[in-house]
Automatic annotation (TrEMBL), chains A, B:
Region of interest (Disordered), ranges: 30-59
Keyword Transferase set for record: yes
Compositional bias per record (Basic and acidic residues), positions renumbered to this chain: 33-42
Cofactor(s) this protein requires: Zn(2+)
Protein name: Galactose-1-phosphate uridylyltransferase
UniProt keyword terms in alphabetical order: Carbohydrate metabolism, Galactose metabolism, Metal-binding, Nucleotidyltransferase, Transferase, Zinc
Pfam families: GalP_UDP_tr_C, GalP_UDP_transf
Enzyme class per UniProt: transferase
Annotated GO biological process: galactose catabolic process via UDP-galactose, Leloir pathway
Organism (species): Boudabousia liubingyangii
InterPro entries tied to this protein: GalP_UDPtransf1, GalP_Utransf_C, GalP_Utransf_N, HIT-like_sf
Catalytic site: 214 (tele-ump-histidine intermediate)
Length: 393, 393
């Protein structure tokens, strides 16, 4: 590991909290400076009071099986009231105030480099004592439901609200990568976890409610529909062609060159031949690996530079009428192979944006929302050409 | 058919245009009043001029096969410049101006009831002389592409910008239903069409760019991902249980009653047990039919009243802080059985909304956009209870 020190602690309501320190003297979270978390946070697992004074045991979020599509749908009804766009002075991801006797946000220290903690408003949650079993709503076989027994974590990329991955630079990016690796490794070993998704939502246009630079990690207790589709395609491809599908795609893209945006020593950035979003990039290591923990030190070091170049190019993609660049709203997510598809799937990041032009967004309307049938307003070759145009090495 | 008269004509660029008249003297589109369409619209199929003075034949939109997911992605690059939020006096769906010598919008008459015409900015298009064949981009088997040889139609529900389906009432709704039936019947018989999707996008929040009351009809040259999922589930259910999946679901919902919103003589409105959107309703005929053309006169007459009650309930779902109702942004789309799934699939409408609360929207961020894994912030039972509360017979 690069010089990153991990320290584990707990928040007042029992949630796990991890410091990933990259700067001397690596003190955040140490007993000498750590603040207690005496916030009156409700016990996450406390019984739920009913209108008639009775209490029902808290069983956590559930998920329903959508028999029409075959998808599991977690229902996080308790998230309805989550924090939304608080004023800057109520930023829950800011470090605790210097000199304060206790923290008033999520962070139990007055400074940090990178921290990861369980989401307070988690839509996936493992509740002690609640068995991960299917039961049938209305006793009907068509209505299966199960605890949404996964885990949602937040990763703060740095202590300051006015910074972001690009401004913080490669050293911090490297720490973020180490945190991604660590969380993927630990979460994928938790019982009941089928798949770990490391992602970042960036920009108000896609609904980001807290502007502090942060990402998220979802550990799903099921295989997501996108991954299921990829697994089906990759398995069929292995059966017919005897090789890994994404490796074949990468070779084909490199041979064509048409949609390659840039390469580093260990990584390739390209626009997929069937890009469905106004801006879409796939970032893959040149070596076939299933997930983030499989990356070598060299690959991670290289990624910490290359990832930021990718983000910089994204921010130059659109230029406003007055010549100023448009901070690209995006979702960047790592596709990692679940346990049962270690050979068929292959690590890659997908960065997508709904920004169609400097002042227009793509909306997911009838075709996309109703039929899951994406229609692109551009072509992958145009996207790639524009990205090459603004690329800076 | 109810007293609806259909008249077919063509627009200046050769697009099909259909009047559906429901009011005496059924004259719209008649030779005596019809205006020519002398707008200088470019021939839709004209060769495309290149930068060096040469011309390439227009081959229409293409679609690429996304080998990672198995989805076809149409690429309507020419739609990038489509009309977006024109001022009210440039409404292209308004009737031609009385006394004008020629039309300046899409409508070749000074009045109409309901009209349907091919979308000027179509993402799916059949171009004469272009064979519907797969070719391989870069000569690579991983990059198949095909003409996006489908059809996109627009349906205007009435002549006035300030009206909507609810305000126009059941008689007009009935005409809209007849137009849906007619277009489904004709489009599903066109060569190469796999599936007809009749839908309405409503509200700026989901990106509606023209406020004139209208819907859309997509005739896809492929089976959409949502329908494919339903076909897979329904086939498996028929094999294991010997019956139609949606029929079984409907029986189970009626037996439970928990999520039933309302019933009419021929229709049932319910919230599905795994609703994934903040507001979601499914509307199904009580009789098992594959598509809109299979409905009886009685079922259509009943629907023309019941559909509007459904929309009215949607508009009362959220109430703003000042007590005023929130005009619900929604996508309402008809799931119809493709040819090869007439027995397995069953007609139903899905109405979905991203409006989480009077002032909050659901965004499709990391989990939904990156993994196609929806997470609901509420429960189907809450949605159903609220809809029953505001329902008015």
């Amino acid at each position: 590991m690069a010089s990153v020190r991990k320290t584990a602690t707990k928040l007042a309501d029992g949630r796990d909290f991890f410091y990933f320190d990259d700067s001397e003297p690596y003190v955040s979270g140490q007993a000498t400076r750590r603040l207690d978390d005496p916030r009156p946070l409700a016990d996450r697992f406390a019984p739920v009071p009913g209108p008639d004074g009775t209490e029902t045991p808290f069983t956590g979020p559930i998920m329903r099986y959508d028999v029409l599509t075959g998808d599991w749908i977690p229902m996080a009804a308790h998230r309805m009231n989550r924090t939304f766009m608080p004023p800057a002075d109520a930023n829950p991801f800011a470090p605790a105030r210097e000199g304060a006797e206790y923290q008033d946000g999520e962070i139990p220290d007055t400074d940090y480099d990178v921290v990861v903690f369980e989401n307070r408003f988690a839509s996936l949650m493992q509740v002690p004592g609640v068995p991960d079993k299917v039961r049938y709503l209305d006793n009907n076989h068509l209505f299966p439901e199960r605890p949404a027994a996964g885990r949602c974590e937040v990763i703060c990329f740095g202590p300051r609200l006015d910074e972001n991955l690009v401004s913080m630079g490669p050293k911090r990016m490297r720490t973020v990568i180490e945190a991604w690796v660590d969380r993927t490794r630990e979460l994928s070993q938790m019982p009941g976890i089928e798949q770990v998704f490391v992602f970042e939502n960036h920009g108000e246009a896609i609904g980001v409610s807290l502007h502090h630079p942060h990402g998220q990690i979802y550990a799903y207790p099921y295989i997501t529909p996108y991954t299921e589709k990829m697994m089906r395609q990759a398995k069929a491809y292995r059966q017919s062609h005897g090789k890994n599908l994404l490796s074949a795609v990468l070779e084909a893209e490199l041979e064509s060159g048409e949609r390659i945006v840039a390469q580093s020593e260990h990584w390739v950035l390209y626009v997929p031949s069937a890009a469905r979003w106004p801006v879409e990039m796939h970032l893959a290591p040149k070596r076939q690996v299933p997930d983030l923990p499989s990356l070598t030190e060299e690959e991670k070091a290289d990624l910490s530079e290359f990832y930021l170049k990718m983000l910089r190019a994204g921010n130059k993609f659109h230029v406003a009428a007055d010549g100023s660049p448009v901070d690209l709203p995006y979702v960047a997510g790592w596709h990692q192979a679940p346990r049962e598809a270690q050979l068929d799937l292959r690590l890659h990041l997908q960065l997508i944006s709904i920004q169609r032009s400097p002042d227009k967004l793509k909306y997911l309307a009838g075709s996309e929302s109703g039929m899951f049938a994406w229609i692109s307003d551009t072509t992958p070759e145009r996207i790639a050409a524009r990205l090459r145009e603004v690329w800076e090495d």
